[in-house]
What does this fold into?
Amino acid sequence: MTAPADQATHSAPLVRAGVWCEAVSTYSGMPGTATRRDGYAAPGPEAAIRWIRAGTRTVARVLGPHQAGYVLDHWVDGPGSARACARLRRGEPCSLTLYPGIQHLTWQARPVRFLRLAEVNGRPPCGRRHRPRLLLTGKDGRAR
It folds into this structure.
């Protein structure tokens, strides 16, 4: 026997594990100037690291040759990203900060739980611009 379509929708989990990623810029030597530049709700650690790698490759073009070489060889194509992915799998946050000029650019990722939003009249909850909501949890997994 097959369940009706609306029952199948309600049987989806209300909470799913994922990784919240952000790109933040801060002016050097000026506390309180942090600005979120981008955010991404990654389905897992691997997707989060791919997102950070893509941003890092873009910014590496404006870095000096020494810093760009290190970031690309060590973090993007080397062991740094594998270590960051392992940290996310263990439930720990990770970050990478670059200093291309007067601004510091930081990509940060942390494991979270996303809440599923309810459909309204058979339509997605937020239209095409839907991003899962963030449920902050402590180390013990309970909501704060």
